[in-house]
Design a protein that fits this description.
heterodimer, A: alpha+beta, Arc Repressor Mutant, subunit A, 6 strands, globular, B: Rossmann fold, Dna Ligase, domain 1
């Protein structure tokens, strides 16, 4: 799963879906996660990167990451092998 | 050097349910190829464009479409004597029929050029014929039916269910959730716009629109899709954003290709959550948000003027995605003398 190619993400965490005109904003960690998804990093890779980089409780972050990814799917911002996730 | 042109434009009603005149004029004023003098053509004395002297150089009142073509022709002949009009751009659905009928005559006898759809195209895309139009051009259209009295509403229950949309012949639509609401909307809209009333299946989704221009030979000269971000209580876009939606562009170019549409138009679609597109309406002229297309890199009114003058127009290739328009209200201060002049002399 990764972020669709056409989704624009700015440094400030502003996300724009040009296909439907929806926009969202996220915090710096959200921006970092989205950028990693855009680089085709797996959710497991992102999880371990964040846990190694920031002081955060593993069980709490895993749940937050799961929720965040599900939210990206719900907003149709992700795709798997070119198909909408 | 920019070519000097006198261009007459209707639709100066820059109000909460705006006509496209002012955005069309802004687009023409932005043109690098033309140096335009704008002749406003108005129906009401309080159309704001009459008093916007930085955009409209001179305004003349013209008779309402209900007055017929002869009286319109007489008035246009007078205006043309004063202004030597090169191009005329009508911007109201209700006046288009008369102007289409007069197109050849105005060109030959007065040298006034227009670029309008044919009478067949105008009729085929009419709300009452939209289902047939959709079938012909392979576009999904919500089921709809014409009715002439409220007594017919109850008889529709085999084919329709609530909510349903009650639409006027030219303008206005309202969603009805029960018989009482349907009858109320019927009476209100028919009193204003006449009969028939169109009853349409309600489609849930996001409203996405396209402003486009066809060359009359099947080529799309330009098309820009937009999603309404803010909708007024009259269903008008108060803010919108350009989209990157290939399906919408394909539907537009296919429709213009198969119908050989000539001139400006607006396609209104409903996009369902399953990504299906239903054509809700075709407006046979530019929408009031056409200036967004200019902002996104496609000056459709300028292209229309070139086409009207018989010049070759190269189709636009792209536009900027993610460009927004945000409409605003603005109070002009106007001297009574100006209001008096347009009210009594019919020109300002």
């Amino acid at each position: 799963m990764r972020i669709k190619k056409n989704i624009a993400i700015s440094e400030s965490g502003f996300i724009f879906n040009p296909a439907v005109g929806d926009s969202y904003s996220t915090n710096p960690i959200g921006t970092e996660i989205i950028k990693m998804l855009k680089e085709s990093k797996s959710v497991a890779e992102i999880n371990s990167y964040i846990l190694n980089t920031y002081q955060v409780e593993a069980s709490s972050f895993e749940k937050d990451l799961y929720d965040f990814v599900k939210m990206l799917e719900k907003y149709k911002l992700t795709e798997t092998n070119g198909q909408e996730a | 050097m920019a070519k000097k042109l006198n261009i007459a434009v209707t639709g100066l009603n820059a109000i909460d349910s705006p006509g496209p005149g002012i955005p069309v004029i802004r687009a023409l004023k932005d043109s690098k190829e033309f140096d335009v003098r704008i002749i406003g053509l108005s129906y009401e004395t309080l159309e704001p464009g009459i008093y916007m002297h930085d955009l409209v150089d001179k305004t003349y009142q013209i008779p309402l479409p209900s007055g017929g073509q002869d009286i319109l022709l007489q008035r246009l002949a007078y205006i043309n004597e004063q202004e030597d009009i090169d191009v005329l751009i009508p911007n109201f659905d209700a006046e288009l029929f008369s102007f289409i009928k007069l197109e050849d005559y105005l060109k030959k006898s007065m040298g006034i050029h227009m670029c309008l759809p044919t009478i067949d195209q105008y009729e085929q895309r009419h709300k009452v014929n939209l289902n047939e139009f959709g079938d012909k051009h392979g576009i999904k259209v919500p089921k709809s039916k014409m009715i002439f009295s409220t007594a017919e509403i109850s008889g529709l229950m085999d084919e329709f269910s609530y909510p349903m949309v009650i639409k006027g012949k030219f303008y206005e639509a309202a969603v009805a959730y029960n018989y009482e609401q349907a009858a109320t909307h019927f009476n209100k809209i028919s009193a204003k716009w006449g009969l028939p009333i169109i009853v349409q299946e309600f489609v849930y989704g996001t409203e996405v629109n396209v402003t486009a221009i066809g060359d009359g030979k099947g080529t799309t000269i330009g098309a820009v899709p937009m999603r309404k971000l803010y909708i007024t209580d009259k269903g008008k876009a108060w803010a919108g954003i350009t989209l990157d939606d290939q399906n919408l562009m394909d539907l537009t170019t296919n429709m213009i290709g198969s119908s050989k549409w000539r001139g400006g138009l607006e396609l209104e679609f409903m996009k369902t959550k399953d990504d299906e597109y239903y054509l809700m309406e075709i407006n046979p002229r530019f929408p009031a948000w056409v200036y967004l297309a200019v902002g996104a890199g496609q000056n459709h009114p300028e292209a229309l003027v070139k086409m009207a003058l018989g010049e070759e127009v190269t189709p636009f290739k792209d536009y900027e995605v993610g460009k927004l328009f945000i409409r605003y209200a603005y109070d002009m201060i106007v001297d009574l003398k100006e209001f008096e002049q347009i009210s009594t002399l019919g020109e300002l």
